[in-house]
Amino acid sequence: MSGRQTDALDRLWSRYGLDVSDASVDLAQLFGRRAPVVLEIGSGMGDSTAAMAAADPGRDYLAVEVHTPGIANLLDLVERGDLDNVRIARGDALDLVRGLPEGALAAVHVYFPDPWPKARHHKRRIIQPAHVALLRSRLAPGGTLHCATDWAEYAEAMRETLDADPELVDAYGGFAPRPAHRPVTKFERRAITAGRPVADLIYRRR
Known about the structure:
Blueprint: H1 3-16, E1 17-19, H2 27-31, E2 37-41, H3 47-55, E3 60-65, H4 68-81, E4 86-90, H5 93-98, E5 105-111, H6 129-137, E6 139-149, H7 152-164, E7 168-170, H8 186-193, E8 199-205
Parallel strand pairs: 1-4, 2-3, 2-5, 3-4, 5-6
Antiparallel strand pairs: 6-8, 7-8
């Protein structure tokens, strides 16, 4: 990590961070208010999370990540942007979700998860039936599950899995147009430059 990131982690973790455990999470206590909550699974370096939170102050953003430099970078962005509507969880996303009450989330974002391209590794993918059922159960009625990937085979597999969930409705009847609220990241620009088009899938809970 850079010196700036190390400093941010040391100073800001106690204020904005939590370690994932088997315990339940009180979102109102975590954020200090009651507001719609967006869960960001795999926030990476945090640029997208910080940008969306800054543009959407009426909602709270809970990012979950395992990569320490990414966590530290997001903490730095939170401080620089004076973003009191962001909290960062360190650990396994599914363990975090299990600790949330049913219907607690306004939206779940799964942007550019690891595609695990080898067939023998597909069982590690975040978007698979049991995981989708868990994520959907934490959405409020009408809440949104938004996935994005630059891996064509995974995009089709995501669509098939999401279509199969009886409580999710495809908001666009197929791949969605790129939503304006999802920032373009450096990762996404590299994917497009390499000729990998990005697919968005947006589903709502019935």
